[in-house]
Amino acid sequence: MAKKQLTIEEKLQAALVPVEEQPYKVPENWCWVYLLAGYAECLDKYRKPVNAKERAERIGEIPYYGATGQVGWIDDYLTDEQLVLLGEDGAPFLDLYKDKAYMIEGKAWVNNHAHILRSFWGRNGNELLVHYLNQFNFNGYVNGTTRLKLTQASMNVIPMVLPPRAEQSRIIARIESLFAKLDEAKEKIQEVLDGADLRRAAILHQAFTGKLTEKWRKENAVSDDSWEENNLQNVCLTKITDGTHKTPKYTTKEEGGVPFISAKDVTKGEICWDNIKYIIPELHEELHARLAPQRNDILLAKNGTTGVAAIVDTDEVFDLYVTLAVLRPNTDIINPRYLLRIVNSPICKRQFDERLKGIGVPNLHLRDIKEVVIKIPSVLEQQEIVRLLDNLLSREQSIVTACEEALTIIDTLKKSILARAFRGELGTNDPTDPSAQELLREILSA
Known about the structure:
With 446 residues, the protein is α+β, with helices and mostly antiparallel strands. 38% of the residues lie in helices and 17% in strands.
């Protein structure tokens, strides 16, 4: 039996979202429609997955798209027009700041991790659709635990605002204008962030070549030739060694386990205690008798975070794995924090990198660590260098933090602009524009 054809009025009622289900109020000449009934058509029939092995044999010049963007190239295409892709699975649906939809244009091949949409309202409709979906709250529309999924059925009933045609153009122009200003600000902030490593390296270079304390030496009648070269072993009180080579037997803190630190716990000049492991007390007694870390020891990662060092700033008892070397500074000739700073500087990193050995995960050997050469002034000048570095690097970190916060604010502002745009709050709406509902009627009757 032939399927009954719906009348225009029936199609209209099927496309419109009932008042009680509308998420919020919009201007009178706008209307709420269901995504796949009143705003766009789903073209998922034109998508087709191709596994990595087959794609490797079909490398071409056609973009191959997935849930969140292009994931490769292929030698053929399934679509050739401007389309909107919305993740089916693998997209960050519940992350406010990340995009879930994007635009493609021209020849393309889409896999089965993205839905293919085409607005009934042309290019402007596609652009609005991308903006709308990237600010939409998908809570309640996606399901799954480890990998959220947006089914076609759920996508079908997503409520979508439909402004009149002229208003669509005005909204897009306003969004682009506001976004352009924010992007300009974002670019300048990013330039400051991108220069952070260079600025930090320049500060450290000045510190460990004597330029940072030139004024101090003059004020204290210290010769510019007072600095001496030495290797890391010679500035340590004991032989540089590493943690246990034995396979650790783990337990829990609640069962009396002793903290056990490895290279993964040494980051950015500090020991991170958040996700440490614990070993059984019997093994601790054996390890601690051989090597008992103490305050002001420098822990240097031999692999993993290779070349990164942290200072022990606690009296807590803990043990070390083989991935960490221990440098115990001779405080008669070197300030522990001066040693920490110079070990974490480009001066030592360059020498560490030259000595890395091994395939896959490179390692630093103890003999190579011992031979790394550093320059050291008097202990008093070292103290001044540490003081200056603490101030300068703290100020630099404040700048980085402020920039990162500013970038987050910009991302938040963009989402706020989009939210206001789809409420008719950008000052672009003209109440004399023809009703969007009448335009929808024309589309449905075509």
